[in-house]
Amino acid sequence: MTSRLPRGLLRVIGVAVLYALATRLALATPLRSGVVAVWPAAGIALAALLRGGIGLWPGVLLGAFAAKVTGDHGLVAAIGGSIAPTVEAVVCVLLIDRFVRPVQRGDVRRFAAIVALFAGAAASAVIGQSTLWLQGEMLGPDWGTAVLRWMLGDVTGILLVTPILLAVGRQLPRLRPLSVAEDVLAAATMLGTAELVFRHPQGQIWLLIPIGVWLVLRASTLTVSLTSAGLTIIAVRLTADGAGPLAVGGDADVLHAQTFAVMISACLYLLSALTTDRRQMLDDHRRLSEEAAALRRVATAVAGGATPHDVAEQAGREVAGLMALDVGVVVSFQPGSDVVRCLGQGRADGVDTPPLPPLSRIAPGSAIDRLRRTGVAERFDERGAAQLTMPPYTQRVAAPIVTDARLWGALIVCTTRDDDLPADAELRLQRFAELMGMAIANADARARLVAQATTDQLTGLVNHRAFHERLREEVASAQRHGRELALAVFDIDRFKQVNDALGHVGGDAVLAETARRMAAASRTGEIVARIGGDELALLMPGVGGDAAHAAAERVRRAVAAAPFQHAGVMTLSAGVCDLTQATEPEDLLRLADGALYWAKAHGRDACIPYSPQVVEELSADERADRLEHARALAALGALAKAIDAKDPATIRHSERVAALASELAGEAGWGPADVARLHDAALVHDVGKIGVPDAVLSKPGRLTDEEYDVIKRHADLGARIVAGVLDVEQVAWVRGHHERHDGRGYPDGLIEDQITEGAWLLALADGWDAMTGARVYSAPMTLEAALAEVRRHAGAQFHPDAVAALERLEARDALRALTGEGAGSPPAVTA
């Protein structure tokens, strides 16, 4: 029975063999008097230790010793010649690990790496030439020149060979014929020009510069490395033969060629790496922008109450298009079964692959199988398989969908591509999977609510969902049987002031009493419903025209007939519309709501029947736009509430910020319309946190710099999400709510008057709630401590005028009601 060598020993032997072969080849092809101008073995040694670990240094030692001792050198030279490259490789790796890799900036890091190479090469040269001197075999006219040649030769070998070896086995970019042709042309032009320049005594080396610029700007890093190797070979060989502009005669020619090779290799390497970094940065920025737009579209669908099937199809389509793959699919796990159910799938534009079946069996060892056991994103590669488990797809990536702290299913992208998938495919997929989890959770919650009841829990009236179902049924029945039908929509006048004065418990009591009075004043067959925060409806089958207006007036007067406890007399505004003005349920509600808006805009405490002649200030398009805007804003508000609810410490955070920001704006002299706009923007100011992972959003300890950078993106993403719903100024308020008066805020680092007034009012309201609310990382401040903190940061973090408005609120004893839980949950500002 044969024994197998340990894997580590095999790797050491492999390094030794490669180093020995490279050394023997270099020693067999000296340029002049035994001098080797470029030492490729140094590049092999460094690449081996960087990829395989510093523990492979015995391979370098053994390989160098074997190559030297089998040559014409003595024992002392062989020992020194093996110690020298080993020390060089170890010194370079230690310096790179200790000082170079921690550097954040790529350009500085690469320059520091070259300095480390020179340090290691200098150590090797001193050791090696010293042993040759002891043996009496020193190369060169003097010890210093010999050390310099040795060092330059090793540095050149590392710069030419190490980048190429480190690139072996790594994922290559997708090859495009035109790019490959351009790379080949640029390399051939550079090498051909170098051949001409270094064959002529008066050759113009500067001719290589524009070609080098072409290379570093357009060619791949691997092409630049290979071209540098070819250029070095041409320059060193021809200069050593006495040709070209660097040759002056004698042994110094080799030194000139080495110096040139080091300079040109280092410059091309640094410039190419810098260009690659910048190109990658631009690609990343473009990709993140596209991803943010896709996330916004999916998030809007989730917030708008789209069905899980529709959200699944949109998420699959978006993620497949973003990742340049074929199809994205959402599957759910079946308890106790190895079968997954397809909830929805979407294909990228231009893809014509067959749809996946409704039910699929989980293949053992597949991405879904591993994900089900590990709960983390996985990928599955069947490019080399004889039979595909999900034909025609050869590669898949799956990310988990989690709802209610359980693994519900997965979001999968599939492709027929033969090249490798992007390295960050799992991370990008996970963002969409989190949105799908929210969509599934929302759908489950809605289903539970529908199954439990169709009544509003606070008022006991028909709830919003049931009302719309009844509205559609009654319209269809009235049209089928030729009967009349009318709808009245009511809104409690100045309800926000009730909430501000009595708190939400008192406001809820007023709302419940209003509903009771409306129900008592309604007649048999009429349906009273709560269709919004303080918006109520009266659906009147068999009633139309003046009778509908009289019924709405009867309800309005019943509510105002007696004072409410603690609130005094409350009034209603109402709008009425019947089927003579509208033929569709949505039109009936829209026109009644338009009449209500007209009533509130003209003094409140009135009941206005809709007619084009009376409701003349609002055209049909304007009313439709207003309703559509309100629905979109409500959808974003629901998403913001869902984000706040992820952390118990931030529940109703956006509502408290909106309440305080509105009061600050009023103190600052804003008009009611602008205060309402600021309130709307404040309700959705944190909607961009949909793109922040929960682990970062709810981390109890101090954030790392990388995690803080992720948090800082939410202001920009939030502005992008609300851009289609809010106006330009409101979007600027959302984007700037983390800017600071002293310019140290984000995302734009604005300073003083560069920050809009709404943004600095919102910033103070947001900061105040963070200080006075309980968070995972800090206890809440008292009102007095928070005031002291705000005053301390006036003119730095907070705008002085915003602080002054806060002081005025405190002076009239209104701040405590707007702080922490006292702020409650204010509704949207009424018209």
Tell me the strand percentage band: 5-15%
Main pleated-sheet profile: 6 strands, antiparallel
Calculate the mean pLDDT score and round it.
Answer: 80
What is the CA-atom radius of gyration, in angstroms? 37 Å
Poorly predicted tracts of residues? 821-831
Please, how many helices?
A: 26
Proportion of residues in helical segments: 55-70%
Offer a quick outline of the entry.
With 831 residues, the chain is an alpha+beta fold. Helix content is 58%, strand content 9%.
What does this structure look like?
- It is a single chain.
- The strands form two sheets. The chain has a six-stranded antiparallel sheet, sandwiched between helices.
- Strand 5 (395-403) and strand 6 form a beta hairpin.
- The chain has helices spanning 7-28, 40-52, 57-69, 75-100, 106-135, 143-167, 177-197, 208-218, 221-240, 252-303, 308-322, 367-374, 425-452, 464-481, 495-521, 545-560, 585-601, 620-645, 653-667, 672-683, 694-697, 705-722, 728-735, 757-772, 783-792, 800-811; strands at residues 327-333, 339-347, 359-361, 378-381, 395-403, 406-415, 485-492, 527-530, 535-541, 572-578, 607-609.
- 58% of the residues lie in helices and 9% in strands.
- The chain is built from 26 helices and eleven strands.
- 43% of the residues are buried.
